[in-house]
């Protein structure tokens, strides 16, 4: 029901914009988020937006470089670094719950791979 796209190969210092497409069954979400998972690592929080008040939240590692759009939920990633290399996933939270952990989300899409070369 969710599909992340827009990933690709980019050099360090470059930019990418990821988008999240919702298809199929409609639902009302209370929050949308981006997570990422690097090889051999756990899925980690990147950014989120809460529809309750429009607030946005970012992981410290991406703050100031990544921006989640309040209109489209697109994730604009600037000044990319090799450590940003991962599969990126968009997720939707229907019920209340944590914003910062995967367990707080109800719907997940297939991820899109972002590779940042040094």
Kindly describe this structure.
By secondary structure, the chain is mainly β. It is 0% helix and 47% strand. Strands 1, 2, 3, 4, 5, 6, 7, 8, 9, 10 and 11 form an 11-stranded mixed β-sheet that branches. Strand 4 and strand 5 form a beta hairpin. The protein is globular and about 40 Å long. 31% of the residues are buried. The mean pLDDT is 93.
Task: Pick out its properties.
mainly beta, single chain, 11-stranded mixed β-sheet, 118 residues, 0% helix
Could you estimate the helical fraction of the residues in percent?
under 10%
Figure out the total of helices: 0
Distance between the termini: 34 Å
The Cα radius of gyration reads 13 Å
What is the H/E string? Answer: EEEEEEEEEEE
Q: Count of DSSP E strands? A: 11
Content-based structural category: mainly beta
Low-confidence stretches: none
The biggest beta sheet reads: 11 strands, mixed
Short structural description:
This protein has 118 residues and is mainly β. The chain has strands spanning 2-5, 8-11, 16-22, 31-37, 44-50, 56-58, 66-68, 75-77, 86-93, 107-110, 112-117. Strands 1, 2, 3, 4, 5, 6, 7, 8, 9, 10 and 11 form an eleven-stranded mixed sheet that branches.
